[in-house]
Amino acid sequence: MSSAGRRARRAALVVLAGAALTGLLAVTAATAAPVGAPERAAAAARTDVYIKDVPTDVGLEPHTLEPLWASPDIKVCPTAIECATSQNPIVGVTNYVFVKLRNPGPYGSGTSSGVLRVYRTTPGGGATWPTHWTQIGAVNVIAAAGVTTVTVPWTGVPGPGHFCLTARWESSTDPMTFEGPDIHTNTRYNNNIAWRNVDSVRLTPSAPPVVRPFAIGNTLTVPSRNDLVFTAAESLRNVGGRVVVDLGPELFERWRAGGAVGTNVRAVGRTQVEIVEPAKASLGNLQLNPGERVEFSLLFSAEAPFEREIALNVAQFGPDNSGAKRADLGGVQYLISAGRQ
């Protein structure tokens, strides 16, 4: 072979070797991370843990079930052993909030890890999220298939011991679908948020009234007009019960300035309005300023004993941030009974 031929052959081998090395480097770069660089984790599968808003809730979001604020999956007990029915917290000592996490819901599968947080606020409606809510506690949880009951200690419960509670399941694989200032909208659109406002009222016949705090609020950036609505399956008057709303001087004057609008109510004092028919009554046209939340009192009394519980729902209705003109902005279910002296 001539010297020219040998040079051509060596050049061809160099080209082939270079091409092979380039291909090897390309394959290696595609299958191995650089030294010292973290490996990219595979995307986690979507999980879906839900907390029931009402007994028939199966985790669909949004839904039209009512009331949103009486979740059966949130319970308050005086000890670390779960009680049969939720109780009012005892002021000044450690109580326990039990929350049931249900897995899976309709939008995911598999074991889910996250944090369960529980918050409190004054009973009533119109509580702006997160401004009006105070965290009670948080627990890290791994939620396997089925129902996981989580216990959240509630230390040093402040007086008067009557609160609305909300539970939130926060997980990177089970994100919130929507969040805004309206807690009722957040609850309706997220199956990992639940809300419980249930208060037991035990009366003594002919004794002074039992007082409960209640608040109504406006989450909008403009003034709004709101209604306070009372509903019950059975009238308290049939068993000698009585309900009086003490609006306080300012809110009472706003009610009068708005035309003293109401159904089955009557003014009985300088700041008080009696609910004449507690099974179905309302106070209307209550004006609230932007971002305002006003607290007042409900006074319950009984003339005679009645052992069976009567459930009275008191709710605020008004405009919300979704554009609805009349939405349920929250309320409280009062379980009322009167024992013998």
Task: Please tell me about this protein's structure.
With 341 residues, this protein is mainly beta. It has 2 domains: 74-196, Immunoglobulin-like; 200-338, Immunoglobulin-like (Sandwich), CATH 2.60.40. Helices cover 13% and strands 40% of the residues. The protein has 3 helices and 18 strands. The protein has helices at residues 3-31, 183-189, 248-257, and strands spanning 74-77, 95-103, 112-121, 134-143, 146-154, 164-170, 193-196, 198-203, 210-217, 224-232, 241-246, 262-263, 265-267, 272-275, 280-288, 293-302, 306-318, 327-338. The strands form 4 sheets. The protein has a 6-stranded mixed sheet with strand order 8-18-17-10-15-12. A 5-stranded antiparallel sheet has the order 9-16-11-14-13. The protein has a 4-stranded antiparallel sheet with strand order 4-3-6-7, with helices on one face. β13 (265-267) and β14 (272-275) form a beta hairpin. The radius of gyration is 30 Å and the shape is globular. The relative contact order is 0.16. Mean pLDDT is 87; it is low at 1-42.
